[in-house]
Structure formats: C-alpha cells, structure tokens
Amino acid sequence: MRYGFAGKLLFIDEGNRIVVYEENEIAYATALKLGYYSFGNRLHVTGTEDSLLAMVRMAAKHHLPVQFTDKKMNKLLREVLQGLRRGTLTDGSAVQAACLGAAQAVRSSTTASKAIKQ
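RE: above sequence
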C-alpha cells in the first residue's frame, strides 16, 4: 500500500517491510508508527546515516516504544530518551544535535536503502 501526503509519495508498505521514499519528519514518524503496529516493537531499520539518525530522533520525539535490531541505534535512542527525561534535551534541534553528535556510533551499520522490517 502506498502512503502519500501533499501529493508526494512518503512510503510504501510492502507487507514484510516499509520502504521510505520521502525524507521528512512526517514520513519517518508515520513509517515508524506503522512498523510498530505491523511488526511489533523490535524493528530492523536500514538506510543512510542520516536516515537512521532521523529514525532514532523520531522514535524519541514521538515516544515510540520501539527497539532496533542495531545495538548502536538502541544505545543512541536510550541516550536521547535519558536527555529528554532529564530535561537536557528540550526541543527537536537539541534532539537532532544529540543524534548527530553520536553519528559515529551508527555509521558502521548503514546500508544504501531505507527500510523498516520485522
């Protein structure tokens, strides 16, 4: 099933995975939520470094109870959530900065495609 917004294709639900086409907050957050409801709380996410960081950022920002199959992404998610709880990360730009600051940790687990799978 194809999902779009404002005339743009955001992502496609292929049944066993969700492929994101538009790199924006709406696409990432909605794809993560759909992945959570379709596949459960443990998600396998692939993509560029930026898209993986965006997925972590969206999971934290939207308080999605997800875990990633990538341990480095989970570590980053925990760090961002702790910062949000402590009040040291209070807005989206602070969350983004925290994610980008830890980009090195995620870099080794990236691939060329963006997908969420069970």
